[in-house]
Prior knowledge:
The chain has helices at 43-46, 58-63, 67-73, 76-80, 92-97, 124-134, 152-177, 199-210, 228-238, 256-264, 274-279, 312-316, 319-327, 331-357, 361-368, and strands at residues 2-8, 11-18, 21-25, 27-31, 53-57, 86-89, 102-105, 108-112, 119-122, 138-140, 188-193, 216-219, 248-250, 269-271, 283-286, 289-292.
Amino acid sequence: MLTITHTQGRARRGEFVTPHGTVQTPAFMNVATAGAIRGAVSAYDLKDLKCQVQLCNTYHLHVRPGDDLIREYGGLHAFTGWDGPILTDSGGFQVFSLASLRKIKEEGVHFSSHVDGRKIFMGPEESMRIQSNLGSTIAMAFDECVENPAAYDYAAASCRRTVRWLKRCQAEMQRLNHLPDTLNKKQMLFGINQGCTFDDLRAQHMQEIAELNLDGYAIGGLAVGEPAEDMYRIIDTVTPFMPKDKPRYLMGVGTPVNILEAVRRGVDLFDCVMPSRNGRHAHVFTWEGIRNLNNEKYKLDHKPIDEECDCPACRRHSRAYIRHLFKCGEMLAMRLCVMHNLYFYNTLLEKIRFAIENAQFDELYVKFAPVLDKRI
C-alpha cells in the first residue's frame, strides 16, 4: 500500500507499507544481485548506508546456490541477514540477455545456464515459484525484455505475450500465497510495462496491466542504451496511465540526474548497479560531480572523497589513502568507494524526499541537475 503524503508538480513523496517494513519514497533500492552488494559490502553494512530495500536476482540465485537451498535456510532474509524489504527481479532481463543460449515459446523460455551450460526452463509459474522459495517481499512478474531498437510488430506481439504471462504470474502467486508452507504468504507482485520506445505500445500496455490491480508497477526495457531524451519521453507517456495509489518503479535507472528527472515525472522507486560498479573502479559520486580517484592529482590529497559527506569512508579516510589502495590492488579500496556511492545515492533520495515535503524540489533540481553527472 502506498500513501502519498506530499506532491510538488508531478513529484511524489510517500510511504510504501510492505510485510517487511515501510519504505519512504522516492527510494533507491540497493542491488545485491547474488545476495550481497558487489565490493565486499554485506547486508549488515546497509543499515549504516541509509539503505531501505535490498534487490536480489531470481535467475542468479536459482543458478547458484539454488532457490531450494535458500528456502531450506528460511529465505533470503535469513540467508543474507537483511531484515528489511527485499525485491527480487524475475530473472527476465538476465534470461533474455542470453540471446545465443535461449529459445522463447509461449509457455516460457528454454535456455542454458551461463555458469555450467545446463538446460533450464523458466516461465511465469517457474519464476513465481523460485521467488516464493526466496521469500522476498516483492516479486517481479516474468516478462519479455525486447532489445532496443526492435521492429514495431515484434514489440507489439511481445507486449501481448507479457500481458498473458503477467496474468499467469498473478494466478500462480495467489496459489502459492495460500499454501500452508509458503515462506511469505504476503508476497507482493509488481507488473512490468514494456513496449520499447513506441509511445502507443507503452500507453496501451500500461492501461492493460493497470486493470489487474497489482501491488505496484514498473517501467522496464529502458536504460539499455537509448538516448536519455527517449527515456524521459517514455516516462512522460506511461505515468499518466499508472495507478496513483501504487508504487511506480523505473527499472535499472540510473545516474543521479536520471533519478532527479524521473522523480520530476512521478516515479517512486529506482535501482541501478552504477553506484557499486563505478565505485569498484574508483569512480565516486560527490555533490560537486564525479571523481576518478585513480587520477594523479589525488596522490597527496588529504581531503575525504566528498567534504560534504559523512559516510563511513569520508569520516575516516583521505582521497590519497583510497587512491593508494587502488594502486596496490587492495579490496578495501573497492569496499570504501562502494559504501560511499551507496550512501551518496541514499542521501540524494533523502534530500529529494525532504525537498518535496517542503515544496523545495524545484530548487533542488535547479541546483544539482547541472552538477551531479559532471566529471571533475
